[in-house]
Amino acid sequence: MTSEEPEAILRFIARLEEVYMLGLCEDRVFITRILPLVPGVIMRFFGECLRSQRNWEQCKAEVMRKFFPHFMRERLIRDLIIFNFHKEAMPVREFIDQVFSAARILEFDAQEQELVDRILMNLHPSMLAHSAFLHRPHSRKELYNVVGLIEEKMAVNKERQRDSSAQVTMGDKGSRSKQEDQNGPRHAHPPQVLVMWSRGTCAT
């Protein structure tokens, strides 16, 4: 983590939460291992968490209280959940995970179905164009399934366009070859030989 901007802190805490859920070590060891990863103010904060013997849940709650006052939460909810528009180059599953993580860390009061609907509304139009005939997902798991079908459909269309382009290219080459054959000389005429007889000799 190299920035102390609210968005950077939020994403960092969300990633830490994912690692913590794996249960690889106890809370004190987990918090200790965070210290080399964060800059000054954040490092001092986690150091205080260790000194006061807070567990991870208490430490996370204190992060939200200290770095995310109410007006800041409202802005981040707006930017990272409500109007977080998916960019075409961004993997869709990564986008989904970011929205759900932000909602969890910011304690956004919404049901899973509401988050799924919000994500669908914010997907890039290139993705939405392929979802017209798919069933509306009602959960995060169903949303992953729908995204998988859309990605498969897009891959098939891309492959089909590639095959069509290859066929057109081959057709153009064949047409040019045929035209060249038609425009070229049909019969080769040997050079005329002028024969001159002079004193019994033949000159060409």
Describe the protein.
With 204 residues, this protein is mainly α. The protein folds into 2 domains: 68 residues, no CATH class; 87 residues. Helix content is 65%, strand content 3%. The protein has 9 helices and 2 strands; from the N terminus they run αααααααααββ. The chain has a two-stranded antiparallel ribbon. β1 and β2 form a beta hairpin. α1 crosses α6 and α2 packs antiparallel against α3. The longest helix is centred in the C-terminal third of the chain and has 44 residues. The C terminus is likely disordered.
Q: Helices and strands, in N-to-C order?
A: HHHHHHHHHEE
- What is the radius of gyration computed over CA atoms, rounded to a whole number of angstroms? 34 Å
Please give the number of β-strands. Answer: 2
Structural class: mainly alpha
Strand order of the largest sheet: 1-2
Helix content: 55-70%
Low-pLDDT sequence parts: 191-204
Major sheet size, sense and barrel closure: 2 strands, antiparallel
In short:
The chain is mainly α and 204 residues long.
What is the topological layout?
Blueprint: H1 6-20, H2 27-34, H3 40-51, H4 56-67, H5 70-82, H6 92-105, H7 112-122, H8 125-128, H9 140-183, E1 196-198, E2 201-203
Antiparallel strand pairs: 1-2
